[in-house]
């Protein structure tokens, strides 16, 4: 059964509500589901908990939700270059739980795998460990981390077939596979939609079993900053 729709807003908006948890793919601006984020912004839902590597930069991607005051809590590994995010964090308007990057990925992976919690040495003896159970294994102290299961996951893929099988391009894969896994409902925007069977089994990064709805990505790929240097001349 095809999971493709040409009107993503029609299937996503009815699933949105105030106070829900969204897991969002991307790393900075690389691989962010900008089309789906814009749908959430336009829906006007508020008091959102957002799970993401970071919130990018002002006015782009998740920064659009910050501008509308729609986010109240963030689980992220990096506050990043978003000045508005920093201002809202320092003022107390947004609660932030900083999570080590590998731990954040594994918490989402665990949520998708049905694993309630796991133990890691990362964060032991730091503020990350406050209030969390610990256990000793082979003479080492480990910290218990709980799985993350999001109400809705938002994902961007480079290529998808109509059954929801996904392929990402290069570094844009980043957090998207684990975000796709941990959502009770997963919505995907893809730059290219192909027919059933056009993706070979070895080309699939996320199986369609994790995907509920799929549509076209309409926002352009962006980068956080462009850094250049002069090309050397023969005189140099």
From TrEMBL:
UniProt xrefs under PROSITE patterns: COA_TRANSF_1
Keywords attached to this entry: Transferase
UniProt keyword annotation of Transferase present: yes
Gene3D superfamilies referenced in this protein's UniProt entry, alphabetically: Glutaconate Coenzyme A-transferase
Top-level taxon in the UniProt lineage: Bacteria
Keyword Transferase: yes
Molecular function terms, GO-annotated: transferase activity
Xref: PANTHER family: ACETATE COA-TRANSFERASE SUBUNIT ALPHA, KETOACID-COENZYME A TRANSFERASE
Membership in a protein family: Belongs to the 3-oxoacid CoA-transferase subunit A family.
Family matches, as NCBIfam families: pcaI_scoA_fam
Protein name: CoA transferase subunit A
Protein species of origin: Corynebacterium nasicanis
């Amino acid at each position: 059964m095809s999971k493709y729709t040409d009107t993503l807003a029609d299937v996503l908006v009815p699933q949105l509500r105030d106070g829900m948890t969204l897991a969002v793919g991307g790393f900075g601006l690389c691989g962010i589901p900008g089309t789906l984020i814009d749908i959430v912004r336009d829906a006007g839902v508020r008091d959102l908990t957002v799970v993401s590597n970071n919130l990018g930069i002002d006015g782009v991607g998740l920064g659009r939700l910050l501008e509308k005051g729609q986010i109240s809590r963030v689980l992220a590994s990096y506050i990043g270059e978003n000045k508005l995010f920093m201002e809202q964090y320092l003022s107390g308007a947004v609660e932030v739980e900083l999570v080590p990057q590998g731990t954040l990925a594994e918490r989402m992976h665990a949520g998708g795998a049905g694993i309630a919690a796991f133990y890691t040495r990362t964060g032991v003896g730091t503020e990350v460990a406050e209030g969390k159970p610990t256990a000793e294994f082979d003479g080492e102290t480990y910290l218990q981390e709980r799985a993350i299961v999001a109400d809705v996951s938002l994902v961007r893929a480079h290529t998808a077939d109509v059954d929801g099988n996904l392929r990402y391009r290069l570094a844009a894969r980043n957090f998207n596979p684990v975000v796709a896994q941990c959502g009770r409902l997963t919505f995907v925007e893809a730059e290219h939609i192909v027919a059933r069977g056009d993706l070979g089994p070895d080309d699939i990064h996320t199986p369609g079993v994790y995907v509920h709805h799929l549509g076209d990505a309409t926002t352009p790929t962006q980068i956080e900053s462009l850094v250049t240097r002069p090309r050397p001349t023969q005189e140099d």
